[in-house]
Amino acid sequence: MNIPNFITLLRIGAVPLVVWLLLEGNLLWGFWVFAFAGVSDAVDGFIAKRFNMETELGKYLDPLADKALLVSVFVTLGYLEIIPSWLVILVVFRDVVIIFGAMVFETLTGSLTMHPMKPQMVSKVNTTFQILYAGSIMAGSGYGLNLGVVLDVLMFCTALTTVASGISIVTEALKRWPSTKGG
C-alpha cells in the first residue's frame, strides 16, 4: 500500500461522512469535507506521477473513489430535494451504463482490456461541472448565498456534459469491441 493509494482510500472513507453531514443538514461541513476530498484527489495524483508511484490498484481505486463521492453527493442532495431528481437520475444512469457495459464486455470477451479507458476530455469536463455544481450547492446553502443563475448555468452544463460524456464513452467502447465470430 503506497501513499497515493492510502490517500485514495481516505477519500473513499470520506464518502459516508459527507453523506451523513448532508443528511444532518450541515451542508457547510459537507462542502468542506467534499472540498478536502477533491484536494486529496489532486494530491494523490501528483504524488503518484511525480514519484513514480502509480499502481494498477490505483488506476481502479482513483476513479472509483471519485464516482463514489460524486454519485453519493448527487443522490443525497436529490433525496434532500436540493437538486432536481432528473439530474440525479441522469448522473447515476450514466455511471450505471458504464459499469453495466464493462460487465457485459468482460462477460462476453473474458477481457476487460478496454477498462480503465484513458479518461476522455469530455468526461474530465463533465466531472469538473459535477464537482462545481455539487460544491456550489453545498457552499451556497452552507454560507447562505443566493447563487441563482450561477447554479442554473452549472446545472445545465452538468446535464449537457453528462449526456455528451455518456455518449462518448459508449461510442468509444463500441469502437473497441472485439471482432468475434457471430458477434
- For the record, give the distance between the C-alpha atoms at the N and C termini, rounded to a whole number: 40 Å
CATH class: Mainly Alpha
What is the architecture at the second tier of CATH? Answer: Up-down Bundle
Q: What is the CATH superfamily?
A: CDP-alcohol phosphotransferase transmembrane (TM) domain
Structural class: mainly alpha
E-strand count: 0
**Spans of 5+ residues with little confidence (pLDDT < 50)?**
none
Shape assignment: globular
For the largest beta-sheet, the strand count, sense and barrel status come to:
none
* Rg, Cα atoms, Å: 17 Å
Mean pLDDT: 90
Order of helices and strands: HHHHHH
Helicity level: over 70%
State the helix count.
Answer: 6
- Percent strand equals under 5%
